[in-house]
């Protein structure tokens, strides 16, 4: 579907599962500015920050956007295997997750429902019509799958930022951060039979927002552009130190736009399993179905998912810029 077709059609209902996070903040704002989607809720998860702070930040970002009509449901504080020793990437996003700006606390509160319950209920309410865009570890989505056997069928699509397909990870050479955060949950999601689209860092590392883009953003008087320019420093310094690049990767905004318009990326299809322990914990292995193995493997008879292989990076960056400046 082209962008204009998408705009003419009913906007897609999306729930953003998020751990804000600087690129999450960007992604949420881009989603709110995207006519192809209607954000019907945010659910929160640990990853870039702990879940409690993710909830605070989600409420704060909606207040900045003037969209307190959108409910926030708080997610799990522990992994699906009840692991409490979480890896929190505050070194990427700042202690507060939003570039160490010490914003005042939000006035709003999360809804009573947990994230998993909210996901289950919304999917049941609009069967086949809700897309979950998962920008953090997949605990909430896996809990929804475990708690409601109909969830995988009811949910329209799960577009997730996660995995490093045939490239090094960003936690260690094996593993990407969101999958590493809860590999057991990721394996549940990948093998659930739901319509899953995985956008890995093999693709998002092509989508670079440069120093020049940031400069342009800072000259815009768009509300979201102005806000983001305040918080981007930490994210830029981290990328400069860790990757030696003059720019940042747009992991989360690229994933939101892929959910809004799938034609911005190309995909392959296969079975994905996740390594859940050992030195390759969090490794995502795609079976491309080219070989019919003689023996039964852990990939045999599992449902397939789509995995992004290329991205139209110039258009993705352009759309992010336009939507943030036009706010
Ligand atoms: O080096 C890193 N370590 C941990 N998390 C990271 C790193 N770089 C980015 N992210 C965060 O994890 C997701 C992509 O894997 C993104 O949401 C990003 O904010």
From TrEMBL:
<dbReference type="GO" id="GO:0047724">
    <property type="term" value="F:inosine nucleosidase activity"/>
</dbReference>
<keyword id="KW-0963">Cytoplasm</keyword>
<keyword id="KW-0378">Hydrolase</keyword>
<dbReference type="Pfam" id="PF01156">
    <property type="entry name" value="IU_nuc_hydro"/>
</dbReference>
<dbReference type="InterPro" id="IPR036452">
    <property type="entry name" value="Ribo_hydro-like"/>
</dbReference>
<dbReference type="GO" id="GO:0045437">
    <property type="term" value="F:uridine nucleosidase activity"/>
</dbReference>
<dbReference type="GO" id="GO:0006152">
    <property type="term" value="P:purine nucleoside catabolic process"/>
</dbReference>
<keyword id="KW-0326">Glycosidase</keyword>
<feature type="domain" description="Inosine/uridine-preferring nucleoside hydrolase">
    <location>
        <begin position="14"/>
        <end position="316"/>
    </location>
</feature>
<comment type="similarity">
    <text>Belongs to the IUNH family.</text>
</comment>
<dbReference type="InterPro" id="IPR001910">
    <property type="entry name" value="Inosine/uridine_hydrolase_dom"/>
</dbReference>
<dbReference type="GO" id="GO:0042454">
    <property type="term" value="P:ribonucleoside catabolic process"/>
</dbReference>
<dbReference type="GO" id="GO:0005829">
    <property type="term" value="C:cytosol"/>
</dbReference>
<dbReference type="GO" id="GO:0046982">
    <property type="term" value="F:protein heterodimerization activity"/>
</dbReference>
<dbReference type="InterPro" id="IPR023186">
    <property type="entry name" value="IUNH"/>
</dbReference>
<protein>
    <recommendedName>
        <fullName>Inosine nucleosidase</fullName>
        <ecNumber>3.2.2.2</ecNumber>
        <ecNumber>3.2.2.3</ecNumber>
    </recommendedName>
</protein>
């Amino acid at each position: 579907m082209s962008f204009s077709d998408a705009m003419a059609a009913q906007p897609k209902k999306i729930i953003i599962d998020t751990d804000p996070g600087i690129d999450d903040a960007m992604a949420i704002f881009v989603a709110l500015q995207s006519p192809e989607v209607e954000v019907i809720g945010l659910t929160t998860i640990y990853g870039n920050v702990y879940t409690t702070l993710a909830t605070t930040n989600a409420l704060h970002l909606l207040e900045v956007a003037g969209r307190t009509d959108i409910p926030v449901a708080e997610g799990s504080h522990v992994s699906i295997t009840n692991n409490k020793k979480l890896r929190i990437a505050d070194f990427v996003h700042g202690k507060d997750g939003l570039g160490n700006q010490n914003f005042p606390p939000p006035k709003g509160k999360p809804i009573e429902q947990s994230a998993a319950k909210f996901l289950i209920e919304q999917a049941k309410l609009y069967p086949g019509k809700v897309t979950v865009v998962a920008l953090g570890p997949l605990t909430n989505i896996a809990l929804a799958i475990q708690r409601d056997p109909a969830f995988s069928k009811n949910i329209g699509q799960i577009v997730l930022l996660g995995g490093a397909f045939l490239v090094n990870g960003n936690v260690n050479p094996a593993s990407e951060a969101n999958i590493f955060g809860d590999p057991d949950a990721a394996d549940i999601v990948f093998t659930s039979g739901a319509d899953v689209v995985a956008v890995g860092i093999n693709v998002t590392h092509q989508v670079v927002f440069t120093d020049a883009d940031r400069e342009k953003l800072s000259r815009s008087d768009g509300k979201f552009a102005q806000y983001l320019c305040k918080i981007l420093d930490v994210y830029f310094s981290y990328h400069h130190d860790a990757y030696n690049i003059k720019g940042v990767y747009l992991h989360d905004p690229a994933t939101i736009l892929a959910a809004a318009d799938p034609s911005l990326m190309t995909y392959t299809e296969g079975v994905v399993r996740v390594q859940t322990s050992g030195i390759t914990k969090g490794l995502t292995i795609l079976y491309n179905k080219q070989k019919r193995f003689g023996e039964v493997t852990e990939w045999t008879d599992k449902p397939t998912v789509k995995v992004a292989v290329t991205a139209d990076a110039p258009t993705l960056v352009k759309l992010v810029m336009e939507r943030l400046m036009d706010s």
